[in-house]
Amino acid sequence: MKLTILGGGGFRVPLVYRALLGDHAEGRVSRVTLYDTDADRLTAVARVLAEQGRGVTDAPAVVATTELDEALRGADFVFSAIRVGGLAGRAADERVALDEGVLGQETVGAGGVAYGLRTVPVALDLARSIARLAPDAWTINFTNPAGLVTEAMSRYLGDRVIGICDSPVGLGRRIARVLGADPDRARIDYAGLNHLGWVRGLYVDGRDELPRLLADPELLTSFEEGRLFGAELLRSLGAIPNEYLHYYYFNREAVRAYQEAGLTRGAFLQEQQQGFYARMREPGTPAWETWDRTRAEREATYMAENRKVAGAGEREEDDLESGGYEQVALALMRAVARDERVSLILNVRNRGALSALDADAVVEVPCLVDANGARPMAVSPLPYHALGLVGAVKAVERAVLEAAESGSRAAAVQAFALHPLVDSVTVARRLLDRYTEVHPGLAHLVRP
């Protein structure tokens, strides 16, 4: 099979290749094509992959190209992990928002809206190219904001585009370990949107073990999300929220912590990765060792400001293990290519899974996956507090889609103003004006 990675010069690509190296079954990926618009980053990542595959007799061949059509032709799977505007764009998103006193995280709040406005047009172009050059390929989207971008691409690719995120999987595995259960045998009752979902149950041998966790304050605060949110809030919710909901439940505290931080997350990653890619331009640099050391620092500092707000301290070793988005992607590809029936939490078109949203709205829910793709499973109705947030954020996503496709300033202002973490039309207008100044690609949104 041939896998094409859009954004092939991205820092996390070696995680995907590492997962492929561990797959020796018949029908595995035999060729990986890296596509990126930045030739220097492509060269750097290709060096890391070459060291990873050294000594592995059946390592997938790696080809790097800056030509999109060449990358897509003949692809069986397309993995989309692009970052429009790079980390400099993310850092600008964060700073503009914080200057207005609102959150600028890359997928949440004003930052997520700005990122979506400049990413959706590119994602739509990519979807059209995939439909034209690789119509039978399955597209796996990890580009943020993942749910929004998946919904945009679905307009041309239908159900052949599936969004993935490691947050719900990582959360479920941490809960299972705390309860003494095998994470691979646990079934997670999870529903919402990308970066806006809740675990409402965790079933082991048909028994829901979540009530036992909620009833034990010591257990409840023994893992990352428990320390972030606190036992009192979690027990009142009767659910365990995705870590990104900390930005909603503790918004004022999070904004203040980010304003007081020396660097925003985007600025930190920009500085860190500039250093990595600069070192990789030196011929003698040990590629894999340099990459892995940079990765470890990145993971250890994840959501540091939020942990500071919650008094949660440093990340513990168990919490450093993500859900492994590369493992989710590999499991998804295996299920589709080999018709191996599996259940995964994915971003797919709703098809009635959440009754409050229309059929084409992309949601994040457990899905059954086989050779026919991913089909959302029915989930219990969301409680009103969750339903309100999901409905509001989906309205924001739809406004972003309208603005990105039509160039409507009114729709762009609406996207900012409707977001629960902006809640001001006046601020929304100022945000859009500032973002169009710092991102020339958004200049078309200045018209009425």
How helix-rich are the residues, as a percent range? Answer: 40-55%
C-alpha-based Rg, rounded: 21 Å
Strand order of the largest sheet: 3-2-1-4-5-6
Structural class assignment: alpha/beta
Weakly predicted, low-confidence segments = none
Query: Which overall shape is indicated by the principal axes computed on the Cα atoms?
Result: globular
Count of runs of 4 or more consecutive helical residues: 20
Could you report the average pLDDT, rounded to the nearest whole number? 92
How many strand elements? 13
Strand content: 5-15%
How far apart are the first and last residues' alpha carbons, in Å?
Answer: 48 Å
Tell me about the largest β-sheet: 6 strands, parallel
Topology:
Elements: E1 2-6, H1 13-21, E2 31-35, H2 39-53, E3 61-65, H3 68-72, E4 77-80, H4 86-99, H5 109-133, E5 138-141, H6 146-157, E6 161-163, H7 167-178, E7 187-193, E8 196-204, E9 207-208, H8 210-214, H9 217-220, H10 224-229, H11 231-237, E10 240-241, H12 246-249, H13 251-260, H14 265-280, H15 287-300, H16 304-310, H17 325-338, E11 342-349, E12 362-370, E13 373-376, H18 384-406, H19 409-418, H20 425-438
Parallel strand pairs: 1-2, 1-4, 2-3, 4-5, 5-6
Antiparallel strand pairs: 7-8, 8-9, 8-10, 11-12, 12-13
Helix pairs in contact: 1-2, 1-17, 4-5, 4-14, 4-20, 5-6, 5-18, 13-16, 14-15, 18-19, 19-20
